[in-house]
Design a protein that fits this description.
mainly alpha; 3 helices; two-stranded antiparallel sheet; flat; 2 strands
Length: 106
């Protein structure tokens, strides 16, 4: 299907939809961080931020692999390691604290 946005024309394929889905997941991390920070009236990174980072990063990595774009692949793969490591720390801290919520949690 051809999509004409006026300033850009592109063909919407399954892989283009996957790319947009990944971008939507990735963008949601900023929205959940903003909402949480507004509610607490201070800067907070909720756990959902890291889950959306993993979802968006993994989806965009699949898209980058499909596109065979080495710059995009390296960027997304490196980010995934950081997001996963942060989730590990959060869950490790919670398990060590008897399941209590981690600081800045969600």
């Amino acid at each position: 299907m051809v999509v004409n946005l006026g300033f850009m024309i592109f063909t919407l394929t399954l892989w283009t939809a996957v790319g947009f889905l990944g971008q939507a997941f990735f963008s949601m991390r900023f929205i959940v961080q903003w909402i949480k920070s507004e509610r607490t009236r201070r800067s907070v990174i909720p756990v959902a931020f890291w889950y959306f980072s993993v979802l968006g990063g993994a989806t965009l990595l699949a898209y980058a692999i499909h596109r065979e774009d080495p710059v995009f692949i390296v960027g997304q793969a490196g980010g995934l390691l950081i997001y996963a490591r942060n989730l590990y720390f959060i869950h490790h801290d919670r398990a060590g604290a008897g399941g209590d919520q981690a600081p800045g949690g969600g």
